[in-house]
Amino acid sequence: MKLHLPPAARRSPAKDQAGSGARQAVPEAGPRPPRRGRWRHAATVAVFLLPSLVPLTLYTLIPMVGSFWTSLHEWDLITDMRWVGLGNYADLLGDADTRAAFLHTLYFIAGYLPLVYLGGLGLAVLLDRRMPARALLRGVYFLPVITSWVVVALMWKWLLNPASGIVNWALGLVGVHGPGWWTDPGWAMPSIILASAWKDLGFVMIILLAGLQAIPREYQEAAMVDGATAWRRFRHITLPLLSPSTFFVVVISLINGFQVFDQVKIMTGGGPGGATQVVVSQIYDLTFRYGRAGAASALSWLLFALVLLVTVVQIRGQRRWVTYG
Amino acid sequence: MGKALRYLLVGLGALAMLFPFGWAVITSVTPGDAVLAVPPDFTPEGASLDAYGRLLETLPFWRIVLNSAWVGAASTALQLLTSAMAAYAFARLPFPGRGALFAVYLTTLMMPLPVLVVPLFLEMRMFGLVDTYFALLAPTIASAFGVFLLRQAVNQVPREFDEAAVLDGAGHFRIFLFVVLPLIRPALATFAIFGFMASWNSYLWPLIIIKSPEFMTLPLGLATLHGQFTTQWDVVMAGSVVSVVPILVLYVFAQKHVIASVAQSGLK
């Protein structure tokens, strides 16, 4: 679980920025600064802020600047940096490996997103109704969410073992010759997608369940009185009212999808033959295998720009299909 | 939809969720070459805990579990403290540039880890911190997400409470400790769960910064095991099983909180 930022969170900073500038007369309760107070007040602010501001500066802000600075250089981590300006960016844009990494990442997202969304939606609808052991069932679906990616990836790699994996054995029982899941270049990415969807299904389900439960029963009942079929009720009441939750799931899944790494690293290591080399594993390899820290940094900024762009486009576009309340 | 069909679907799905875990347990007690047997043996004859023994020989496993536990606990505690303090400052202490600084905090939320990983590694190397506990902990000392989440909670604490405390002669530190913190406990619990899960499961950063087995955390240790014993699936699965147990126990106790807070994070 990486970033859980509610959609509302993204909009409030701007508002906040506008609303509580230095001069802004927000009614302040709490103790007024004592008379000799300016310095004391400043000291109080410092004591409350520095514990987070110092580490944030050291371990996030400086690395951000450092990453950008590195991206303007050629550097093997050992010898001196060599200034190349935007050369790394230019190289990356024309580089076949980079294009492949982005395409593989998009392939992952294109397979993963519909699977987790439709699967999670189906589960949420099924588990929204009263039924015995409902809490237990929800817990079971949530189990993979809390399990570390390393464990999940290892388990699936074992299940999908081409020679002695249980999945291929089961397929054999019904007369299907199972593929070489993570050894066949054509099947490696689908295997990773399958494992990823399996792991995150419970997360999507919980978000959508919360959304479903916020929908007032009266709407459904009124539609039922009007004689609307179950499908029409779902299509015209549930889905639109679920759109804020859907929006959240899609935004988070896309942000995480662009950064897919753990499962790739463990299940295929980017192979076979580079068939599952995604952007982050490419960044990792550029740095630690090929000693090209500058190119790696430039690639990570390209990724960031893309994620930012996609997120902003989604937030802009939400008015068209997201109905709040 | 028919009731029976609904139960059938949900039941089959639950089975699909549990099966990999169950199969991991079976694999871990399957003796020797029988692991690779086709057809697979669901009730392996001569089942043994041998793989668990070999797991302990191969890795300093308990040390790794302890590392994960204490790094998780320390990073959760530190994040709670630093985030709550900053949240209090942003919600209750006026100062010039407060809005702008809050915006800076939020910007860091948008930064994907891969952007930071390379320079962070270089920074750690510069300070001679590669392969240390501190390096594992460093990026998780402060959390912009935590500041954001907890600030919302502090904002919901009525200001009258502060004022009453002021009348009793309390300063900001006392208000923070004895008025605000107790009142934002649900938000603190939510954030603690997220923080611990993130640390317990984190892989990319430890992978880069840790080299020696004695500083490894669980995900890293398990991944190493896989690299060393591509064919020893019983040992790999034994390690997986052991590593799931602690988080599973924690989850059973915290289930209500976890699910409620994940759901809540998706709403407004």
UniProtKB/TrEMBL annotation, chain A:
Keywords, ordered alphabetically: Cell membrane, Membrane, Transmembrane, Transmembrane helix, Transport
SUPFAM superfamilies (UniProt xref): MetI-like
Organism: Actinomadura luzonensis
Location(s) in or outside the cell: Cell membrane
Family: Belongs to the binding-protein-dependent transport system permease family.
Descriptive protein name: Sugar ABC transporter permease
Membrane topology: Multi-pass membrane protein
Key word Cell inner membrane present: no
Transmembrane annotation, as ranges: 42-62, 106-127, 139-159, 192-216, 237-258, 293-313
Major localisation: membrane
Region (Disordered): 1-37
Domain ABC transmembrane type-1 per the UniProt entry, residue ranges: 102-314
TrEMBL record, chain B:
Keyword field: Cell membrane, Membrane, Transmembrane, Transmembrane helix, Transport
SUPFAM superfamilies xref list: MetI-like
CDD domains: TM_PBP2
Transmembrane segments: 61-90, 102-122, 134-154, 175-197, 235-254
Pfam families attached to this UniProt entry: BPD_transp_1
Bilayer topology annotation: Multi-pass membrane protein
Localization terms from the record: Cell membrane
Highest taxon in the source lineage: Bacteria
Gene3D superfamilies registered for this protein in UniProt: MetI-like
InterPro entries registered for this protein in UniProt: MetI-like, MetI-like_sf
Domain ABC transmembrane type-1 residues, every copy: 65-254
Family (UniProt): Belongs to the binding-protein-dependent transport system permease family.
Protein known as: Carbohydrate ABC transporter permease
Species this protein is from: Actinomadura luzonensis
